[in-house]
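Write out this protein's structure.
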Amino acid sequence: MMDGSIIKADAALKSMVDRPQEGEKLKDIVPPKYIKDRKLGNKTQISKTDPDSTLAGKAGEPKKLAFKVHETIDCENRIIIDAHVTTGSAVEGHVMLGRIDYIEKAFDLKVEEITADRGYGFGVNLQALQDREINSFVPRFQSDNGDRITRDSAGFAFDKNKDCFICPERIGSSKATFDHSMKYEFISRGLISPVLV
């Protein structure tokens, strides 16, 4: 399983200064006294206190200077096998394949299965996982959150007699649960639907 977590940097927003111009040194730039009404961005500013950190945060939340740790866990043995730190603004989907390559080389093994959230579900990743014959349980990335039940279950049918979902390719899952609020848990070990990939 792979997931990313934002870790707050030990730097305040008021440490943000304009990026140095050619010949200018970061240490010589004086931060402004106030940051109120000041637009901050990773392309134009940098933290003088912690230049490796970047502005990051979830949509709708205030941004903060942060790092991101991408952890890969061996669920069967319940151990973290890789913890890779990037800037806070690093896109999860851009690190997935590199981390898999690192894990396979470091431990001299072949990754056979991976689970991750939609932040890793870029088309290029899903295609590479399929090409490498890695069973993936990674939802497709879509910028619009929308109605997840409608979006992710399109084409699936619930078979009440078998208590499972059937994908458009007629592959059934193992036992599933389904309640009246339209929330469901889709459990599938070892089966991949081309619709999900």
